[in-house]
Amino acid sequence: MVLCAFYFWYFSSLAIFLAFFNLYAKHLGLASWQISVVASVLPLARVLWPPIWTRGADRTGRRHMLAVVASVGSVASFLAYFRADGFAPLLLAQIVFASFWSPVLPFVETTTLEQASIERLDYGRTRMWGSIGFIVASFGLGPLLDRLGIRFTLWAILMCLVLTAVATAAAPRPIGTPAQGSGHLVAFLRRPGVLLFFAVGMLSQLSHATMYNFLSIRLAELGFSNKAIGFLWAFGVICEVPVIRWSGILLNHFKRTSLIRFALVVTTIRWLLTATATSYPILLLAQGMHAVTFAVFHIAAVTYTFAIVPAPLRAQGQSLYGAFSFGVGNFVGFLANGFLYDRIGASACFTASAAVALFAAILSLRLREGGTPLLTFAPD
Q1: Within a 10 A sphere around the Cβ of 216, how many other Cβ atoms?
Q2: 19-28 confidence digits (pLDDT tens)
Q3: Which of 41, 115, 204, 336 yields a CA-CA distance of 20 to 30 A from 377?
Q4: Domain boundaries, given as residue ranges, for the chain
Q5: CATH top-level class of 2-364
C-alpha cells in the first residue's frame, strides 16, 4: 500500500505539471519559447541528475536514504515557485526543483520491480495507482482552477509533493548488493541492442513532446474550458488503467519487443489524428489511444530494462532508460516545439511527431528480446 500511495501522489503532481503548469506560466505572461525553455528543464534534469544520484545509490547501497533526501529536497525547493513571477525566477526555481525531483521515480521504480521479482507484489496492480492519481488530479483540479484561479496550481502540486515524500520515506528497503566500480555499467552499455533500445525510447518520448508541451494551450485556443481540458487529460489515463492493471496478461502472451512495435505504430496514428482534430469526439478518440502509446509501451519498456540490466546496476539501469526517453526525448522535443509552435502551428508540430514515432517503429524492428523474464505477473 505504501508503494501504491507513492505512485498515486507522484503521478498526481506530474498530472498537474503536464495539464496546468504551462497554463500558469502563460498566465504569468511568458512567451511560447519561454514556456518551452522552462518546461524543458524537467526532461533535461532527467538526463543529468538521476545517473548521478543512482550511481551513488548502487555503489553505497543507500538507495532508500537518497530517495528520501531527494523527495524532501523537492518539497523544500518547490517553495521558490511561490516567489517566481517572471521568466528568469521561474526558470531558476525549475532548475533547482528538478535536480531533486528527477531521481525520485527511478529510485522507487527500481524498488517496486525488485519486490515484483520476488513475487511480493504485482507490478501492474501497484503502478496502476499512478494512473488513478493522474486521473484524479487532472480531472479534479480543472473545476477547482475555474473557481479558485490558475495560481492554485502551485498549492496543489505542493500538497502532492509532501505526500509523495511521506510515501517515499515509508517505502520498502532495497534488495541486492552494492555495485563495484563503473566497468560493469560500461560493459552493459556495450551489449548489442542496448543503445538501440534506449534510442527507441528516446524517439517515442520525443514524439510525445508536442502533446506534453502544447496540448493544453492548443485546447484553450480552441475555446475549451479548464474542466474540458482536464477531462481530456484524465480520459487518456482512464483508458490506460485497465492495461496497466492487467499488464500480466500482455506480458505473459506477447514478447516485450512486439508490444513496443505495436505501441509505436498506434502512436503514429494518434498524432496524425491530433494534428487534424478540432472536435471534442475526435480528440477523445486520440486521447484514448494513450492506453497503447503510453501504457503498453511503458510496461514493455520498463520490464525489458529490468530484464537486461545486471542486478547490482538496477537503479542506474532504470535511470538510464528514463534519461534517454523522458530526459533526452522530452528535452529535445520541448525545445523544438517551443521554437516551431508559433512558426508552423499545432497541426504541423503534431504531424512531425507522427513522423518521429514512425521512425522509432522502424528502428524497433531491429530489437531482439533480451535478458530473462525476471518478473512474475499474476494475470488475474
Answers
A1: 24
A2: 888 889 988 9
A3: 204
A4: 2-364
A5: mainly alpha
